Amino acid sequence: MGQSAGVQEGGHGWSVGGAASDGAEVGGCGRSNKTSTGVASIGRRRPCPWTPEKSTRNNDPTRRIAAATSDSHTYRAERGELLENLAAHASGENPEHPVTSHNQQIAHLPKPPPTPHAAAAATPNPNQTLLPPRHTMASAYDREDGLAPPQPHGGGPADAYDPNYVPDSVKTFVVHLYRHIRDKNVFEINQMYEGGFQRLSDRLFRDSPWPSAEAVAPYCDGDHVFLLLYRELWYRHAYARLSPLTASHRSESWSNYCDLFSVVLHGVVNMQLPNQWLWDMVDEFVYQFQSFCQYRAKLKNKTEDELQQLKQFDKAWNVYGVLNYLQALVEKSDIAQILEREKEGLEQFTATDGYDYEGGSNVLKVLGYYSMIGLLRIHCLLGDYHTGLKCLAPINLNQQGVYTIVIGSHISTIYHYGFANLMMRRYVDATKEFNKILLYILKYKQYHQKSPQYDQILKKNEQMYALLAICLSLCPQNKLIDENVSTQLKEKYNDKMTKMQRFDDEAYAAYDELFSYACPKFITPSPPVLDQPLTNYNQDAYRLQLKLFLYEVKQQQLLSGIRSYLKLYSAITIAKLAQYMEMDEATLRSILLTYKHKMHAVDSNGKIVSSADFDFYINEDVIHVVESKSNKPQGDYFLRQILKFEETIAELEKVQFD
Known about the structure:
Layout: E1 42-47, E2 64-65, H1 72-91, E3 107-108, H2 118-121, E4 129-130, H3 168-183, H4 186-204, H5 213-216, H6 224-241, E5 242-243, H7 247-266, E6 268-269, H8 275-296, H9 304-312, H10 319-333, H11 335-343, H12 363-382, H13 385-392, H14 407-423, H15 427-444, H16 454-474, H17 483-500, H18 505-518, H19 540-556, H20 559-566, E7 571-573, H21 574-581, H22 585-598, E8 600-602, E9 608-610, E10 614-619, E11 622-627, H23 634-654
Antiparallel strand pairs: 1-2, 3-6, 4-5, 7-11, 8-9, 10-11
Helix pairs in contact: 3-4, 6-7, 7-8, 7-10, 8-12, 10-12, 12-13, 12-14, 13-14, 14-15, 14-16, 15-16, 16-17, 16-18, 17-18, 18-19, 21-22
């Protein structure tokens, strides 16, 4: 196999922009990746799988990611030779024929000395048991190696796990993934990431970890950056499948994220990764921070060894460190400036889905983009809703963006954005966004039924319906709701919404129930004080947020009665309304002022805006009601009917008469 001129000693990397390889293949892709620019995946035959194929943007050949699926017969024929090369390369017996060819470096950074966590990262917990996966990846990588896994790794007990044993199918997976990352073959990386990794996990590692990074290092030339990516997958698999994870394991995962993000921030990264992987990286980073905060807050039943580990790893998953890494990715990527220049037509980011089609890297920019969503999520978990919305400000939610490409990113963004607006009494903004995402899920959820993320989609869908029910009960805005969403909402929560319109204990209990079901899992970021009597404080943050929310509800409970009476009149005296409400005039005036206050909020631009569906003013002890009249969206109705008509015509044209 031909090698480029830029090979470094030790096989840990290549010089940036080195000469392209001669296109020699490593087992079973059935094609050459030779290009003049070294970007094997850009601008060829196959459209990107996560972009709708009928999109007009895909008509541009630069919007396509070239990758042909391997022929299965070619793959099986070459597999034997590949595995022989792997074995020879791992043992050092065949130095003239290395497994991979060096054509470019995935990150230009000297390899640091091994961290003290490296050896411990592969050490399993003998008490590990199977947990349902928090989320998994779609199965799309259809290659079969036909090798029966050894019995101890085919679903056997976790204590039979050998971190140094690497099945042949894992060797093949590592070699292919490494080569595709080196070649910037985004399509194949995405296929292996979403399909191959999950399928191998199901077949070989249902209740045990993957082989250690040190064990697979010979099959990726010991590349430091690739091993950081592999460890990120290793720990994600451990979080999803194995329990309980100790503080030591959690600390090692934190160290790996620190090393990985440091490479992205301070190195010269020369690779392209799928948006799905980059989003999952940020999403998992925030999830593991949340999980660690919950873990260390449950002190009551912890053993002496677990408490000692908490003392030892007290710096792991520090809230300031987590926020600083995400903020550093945002600032280093200049993503806010990129999005601003894109509005002026000076740069393309959304139009290319964040990918670089000129041979560069998308990793820093897209990580910076998704880090803004990660910051929103963390601030919501901390109860700082204003700062969270401020972090998301550069992203325009009224337009399609990179956040809409990945379904998990889309749902997470709108869920946390809507919840933050709900807690800040911006009910109209929350209602609008919940309506849009719920309508989207209603229309397109059938396309995700085979995805392992389908259960997560349905769960967030139910939670957002509950939040929408709260919004509409506190601030009725039925004109903003699509009729299909409204129908679904009535089927799910009509009884509870009827209760919440009253001002009694049942209404209070209904608000409590829906909020507890739909709110995020709030966290207390401060480390525990282990010298004091041990108690569980993992629910303290949730109880505080629930208390603040119910206090707000209690202040507004009388407003529903005011609203129902004012909707019946265009003008009514204060004395008459006080008689109907069975209260004195002074109390009624106070409630009217409360209504004015609660139905107004400060928007993101600092302006005071009304969220009420009608307004009123008082002149000489007479209340004058002014109901807002919004124009019905007739245009949307006609557009929907035109589309239905065109679909009907298309179906009729397919009918053949004898």
